[in-house]
Amino acid sequence: MKAKVHVTLKSGVLDPQGKAVGHALASLGFDGVGDVRQGKYIEIDLNDTDAGTARARVEDMCQKLLANTVIENYHVDIEG
Amino acid sequence: MKAKVHVTLKSGVLDPQGKAVGHALASLGFDGVGDVRQGKYIEIDLNDTDAGTARARVEDMCQKLLANTVIENYHVDIEG
């Protein structure tokens, strides 16, 4: 099965990368663009056959490697 | 309304960042992990009130700035 993980900065944490994208969009002439936030999107192929086990393992991966839980939130979707 | 954009490498394009994550997971003891692919996830606040207009604008943003369409695919979701 496949895990789809979103890692996003917690609200309140400054996002200079998102700010840069927002400014670039404005300079390209896109108006009416408000806040821009950039995060990571990770797809992981897993051998697990049970969705619950897979979710628990991927949440463990997020805690240990994929996300910095001091400043980032993560969201796990399991498919397949 | 809010646009949620996923930018992912096209299949066949090497993903060294994803490979590094895969190796790091293996070295942390997570077995049964296959291919790992890493992409970008961008949230954009928009002033638009019409979902169709918003989608067209965000797809234009992807073409011009957010994605390198030679090697990357993008997917736009409009909410709100």
Descriptive account of the structure:
Two copies of one chain form a homodimer. Chain A is of the alpha+beta class. Chain A has one domain (2-79): Phosphoribosylformylglycinamidine synthase subunit PurS (Mth169, Chain: A, 2-Layer Sandwich). The first copy, chain A, is 35% helix and 38% strand. Chain A has two helices and three strands, in the order βαβαβ. Chain A has a three-stranded antiparallel β-sheet with strand order 2-1-3. Chain A starts with a strand and ends with a strand. The model of chain A has no long low-confidence stretch (mean pLDDT 97). Strand 2 of chain A pairs antiparallel with strand 2 (33-46) of chain B, so a sheet runs across the interface.
In short:
The structure is a homodimer of 80-residue chains. Chain A is an alpha+beta fold and 80 residues long. Chain A has helices spanning 16-27, 51-66; strands spanning 2-9, 33-46, 72-79.
Summary keywords:
elongated; 3 strands; homodimer; alpha+beta; three-stranded antiparallel β-sheet; 80 residues; Mth169, Chain: A
Quaternary structure state of the chains depicted: homodimer
The Rg value of chain A, from CA coordinates, equals 16 Å
**Percent range for β-strand residues of chain A:** 35-45%
- Structural class determined from secondary elements of chain A: alpha+beta
Distance between the termini of chain A: 5 Å
**Class of chain A in CATH?**
Alpha Beta
- DSSP strand count of chain A: 3
The biggest beta sheet of chain A is recorded as: 3 strands, antiparallel
Low-confidence parts of chain A = none
Along the chain, the helix and strand elements of chain A come as EHEHE
Mean pLDDT rating of chain A = 97
What do we call the CATH topology of chain A?
A: Mth169, Chain: A
Strand ordering within the main sheet of chain A? 2-1-3
Which CATH architecture of chain A would you pick? Answer: 2-Layer Sandwich
Shape by Cα distribution of chain A: elongated
Number of domains of chain A: 1
Q: Report the total helices of chain A.
A: 2
The H-level CATH homologous superfamily of chain A, spelled out, is Phosphoribosylformylglycinamidine synthase subunit PurS
Helix amount of chain A: 25-40%
The most extensive interface between chains reads: A-B, 33 and 33 residues
